[in-house]
Amino acid sequence: MATVPSTSQATWFGWMFHLTQAERRAFGACLGGWGLDAMDAQLYSFAIPTLMATWGITAAQAGLLGTAALLISAVGGWLAGFLADRIGRVRTLQISILWFASFTFLSGLAQNYQQLFAARALVGLGFGGEWAAGAVLLGEVMRPEHRGKALGMMQAGWALGWGAAALLYAFFFSVLPPETAWRALFLVGILPAFVVFFARRFVDEPGVYLRSKKVLAAQGGTPSLFEIFRPPLLRITLLGGLLGTGAQGGYYAVTTFLPAFLRQERGLSVLDSAGYLAVLICGSFCGYLTAGICADRIGRRPTFLLFAIGAGVVAVTYTTVPFGDAAMLFLGFPLGFFASGVFSAMGPFFTEHFPTRVRGAGQGFAYNIGRGTGAVFPTLVGMLSARLTLGQSIGIFAGLAYTVMAIAAFLLPETKGKALDP
Question: What domains can be seen in the chain, in order of their start residue?
Answer without folding.
Answer: 21-199+235-411 (1.20.1250.20)
